[in-house]
């Protein structure tokens, strides 16, 4: 009995050391990865490669925003393009009509997106599962039709943003390096918000709702309120990404900022990387965006849509052989080390 107790204590101590060592290794890797990303624009000068990194950061932000509602709370939304579009249109119209800096426009767009998310969430959160997903999909299409026929925001023709002097207050630059650092900063903010949510009481409530909504309600959790909180956080981050997109591309129309494909892409990077995890959307974006850009660059010129075929096949392979997302590989490796 005594030997068994000693053996159990030794095993617990060994597991604690393995976990501690694993966290130290992760911290070191994270430090060097962050340092490499900071100095990367001084090493990589080609605009195309910087463009790919900017898209990775942008899609990781969008996936991280979707992940808070879809990954942690289990509410699959197919209408997140609405918030992306609100962020893009709000900053653009404020700048064009009243010469308000896009930085302030971004904040106003985030507030508007939160208000719209609350208006959408109150009736739709009465629905569950695929009914909720269909409702968000329908609302996304309604916003698409409204903006396509709204003359003040350019309707279906869209809006060209005026070219302003290349200074930080105007959020316009002639080189890609400032955009790179802004997108990287937005990704850092998204990860920080996700981490804070994950480790707070809010995160536990979100996961409880995802695992069993009825049980969470029986335990006294106001499920509708916390789902709306998740939706509001998710909408604000999505609107932030929308403003960045408008300032980066300098042209927006309903097809580029409100299309259903934007909602699908945000969902896809999170699902491919691993839903309900901090790094899942980052890993998903780091794989899917280069895959999309390089296949489009090297195979898209033929006009046969071969790039889309290759892109689709690779996504299907990942979905079939790694349904838990790529973060599932890390989880399995950690479990094997603990067992060993």
UniProtKB/TrEMBL annotation:
MF term (GO), any: branched-chain amino acid transmembrane transporter activity
Source superkingdom: Bacteria
Membrane topology: Multi-pass membrane protein
Cell compartments where the protein resides: Cell membrane
A GO term from the CC aspect: plasma membrane
UniProt keyword terms in alphabetical order: Cell membrane, Membrane, Transmembrane, Transmembrane helix
Pfam families in UniProt: BPD_transp_2
Bilayer-crossing regions: 24-42, 48-69, 76-96, 102-122, 129-147, 153-171, 178-197, 228-250, 262-288, 308-330
PANTHER family reported for this sequence: HIGH-AFFINITY BRANCHED-CHAIN AMINO ACID TRANSPORT PROTEIN BRAE, HIGH-AFFINITY BRANCHED-CHAIN AMINO ACID TRANSPORT SYSTEM PERMEASE
Name by which UniProt lists this protein: Amino acid ABC transporter permease
Species the sequence originates in: Calderihabitans maritimus
């Amino acid at each position: 009995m005594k030997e068994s107790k000693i053996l159990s204590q030794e095993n617990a101590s060994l597991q604690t050391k393995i976990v501690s060592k694993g966290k130290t290794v992760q911290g070191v890797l994270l430090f060097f990865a962050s340092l490499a990303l900071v100095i990367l624009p001084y090493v990589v000068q080609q605009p195309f490669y910087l463009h790919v990194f900017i898209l990775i950061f942008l899609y990781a932000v969008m996936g991280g925003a979707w992940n808070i509602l879809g990954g942690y709370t289990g509410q699959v939304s197919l209408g997140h393009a609405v918030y992306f579009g609100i962020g893009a249109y709000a900053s653009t119209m404020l700048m064009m009509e009243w010469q308000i800096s896009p930085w302030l426009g971004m904040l106003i767009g985030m507030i508007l997106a939160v208000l719209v998310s609350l208006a959408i969430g109150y009736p739709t959160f009465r629905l569950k599962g695929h009914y909720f997903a269909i409702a968000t999909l329908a609302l996304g299409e309604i916003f698409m039709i409204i903006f396509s026929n709204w003359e003040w925001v350019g309707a279906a023709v869209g809006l060209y943003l005026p070219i302003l002097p290349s200074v930080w207050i105007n959020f316009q630059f002639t080189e890609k390096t400032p955009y790179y650092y802004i997108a990287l900063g937005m990704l850092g903010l998204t990860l920080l918000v996700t981490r804070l949510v994950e480790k707070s009481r809010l995160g536990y409530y979100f996961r409880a709702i995802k695992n069993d909504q009825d049980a969470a309600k029986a335990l006294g959790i106001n499920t509708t309120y916390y789902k709306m909180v998740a939706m509001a956080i998710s909408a604000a981050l999505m609107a932030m990404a929308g403003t960045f997109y408008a300032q980066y591309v300098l042209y927006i129309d309903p097809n580029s900022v409100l299309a259903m494909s934007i909602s699908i892409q945000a969902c896809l990077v999170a699902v491919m990387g691993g839903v309900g995890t901090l790094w899942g959307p980052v890993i998903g974006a780091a794989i899917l965006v280069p895959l999309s850009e390089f296949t489009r660059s090297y195979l898209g010129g033929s006009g046969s849509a071969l790039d889309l075929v290759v892109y689709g096949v690779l996504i299907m392979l990942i979905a079939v052989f790694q349904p838990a997302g790529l973060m599932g590989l890390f989880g399995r490796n950690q479990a094997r080390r603990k067992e060993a």
